Amino acid sequence: MVEPISPPLLEINEVEVEITAIRAQGAGGQNVNKVSSAIHLRFDISASSLPEDVKERLLGLRDSRITKDGVLVIKAQQHRTQEMNRLDAFSRLHELANSVALPPKTRRATKPSYGSKQRLRVAKSQRSETKALRARVNE
User: Fold this and answer.
1) Residue 8's pLDDT is what?
2) What's the pLDDT score for residue 125?
3) Disulfide check for 85: which of 72, 76, 112, 128 has CB 3.0–4.6 Å away?
4) How far apart (Å, rounded) are the C-alpha atoms in residues 34 and 38?
5) Global pTM value
6) % helix / strand / coil in the chain, to the nearest 5?
7) Domains identified in the chain and CATH numbers
8) What phi, psi does 121 have (nearest 5°)?
9) Sheet holding 71-76, edge to edge
């Protein structure tokens, strides 16, 4: 059995990513008001070292996390610790970048087969006959 080819893993340099610790939203008691455990990750796509075609596909995504200026903003606040949220934000960044790493397959135009054309004709004639039988009977 042949295994499917996985997309190439893109390397994203940590120097190109701006990380800010912010306070998490939501319930959490006193701790949520004191500790900045959420992570705000900003990644400038156009200024990154990614290949040009990958940059174009990333910027072409209709994703609300990408600003008009081409900056990807990821907010991670799922976990209780800052380090876990940082890892979560980086994994989401890598996941998004790797989703567009491979170019989309080119679509090849195909024609309907002879058999499918024949089946379509038979189905159309049967439908036509059924509808003709529903009509009023002329005397």
Assistant:
1) 61
2) 97
3) 76
4) 12
5) 0.69
6) 40, 15, 45
7) 14-99 (3.30.160.20)
8) -60, -45
9) 17-22, 38-44, 71-76
